What we know:
Structural class: alpha/beta
Number of helices: 10
Mean pLDDT: 91
Shape: globular
CATH superfamily: Aldolase class I
CATH architecture: Alpha-Beta Barrel
Amino acid sequence: MIKGKIHSFESFGTVDGPGIRYVIFMQGCPLRCIYCHNPDTWSFSTFSEDKASDLNFAENVLKEYNVEEIINVLKRYKGYFSKSGGGVTVSGGEPLMQLDFLIELFKSCRSEGIHTTLDTSGYTPVLATIQNILANDIQPEVKAHLLKLNELMKYTDLVLLDIKHIDSEGHKEITGVDNVSTLNFLMLLQKKNIPVWLRYVVIPNITDNIEFIKRLKLLADSYANVERVELLPFHKMGEFKWEKLNLRYTLKNTPAFPDEQLNQLKEFL
Length: 269
């Protein structure tokens, strides 16, 4: 039986997709975003109970669950889902790092009539190596990976795709990798006609340049399956976790992004 490594749950989410959503935060992420508010989800292993307590995590933090256990919980929320147009959102960490579990979970959700949303950076090590995801002469191991992604798409109703930075070098500076995988994943989503909401965190003096916003708009306009773009203001609510984990937080002196400026960028879009 496949089990997923899960960091925590949020039972009444309202900002991660349409309606009221049950949000599952998967454990493990290969990216190292400098503004990450959940650095405790990076590790693919688990912390000690003492460390989890020290970080004020939920009681169910960093455990393994099988699909049946989660579906049994989701069934209790179906009334909220149906009345609000909600469902389940799987976030992270990076959910695509646990593809087999994710496929089984979304497949079961589909059979239960539960709307599925994937919140992802679109990053997998395999996608990061592909120059042309639509080519026919791809290697067998790449093809096997794409088959799994295609299988997942059969049961995915919506994707919240995090565009960490529209510029490839800028993406590398703030995450540790370029944006090749993200753009490849977006191409795959278009091929499968999966609805997409692009999400973009606006960081003062890093991602707020108007030229970057123009390029983000061009990207969104070039994909018919992109339904909306969400500009999210940089905040510092996760800073305390960096300190608890003895990680160097390079944005310590960076202020939260002002609402007035964010609204101006939204108007531009």
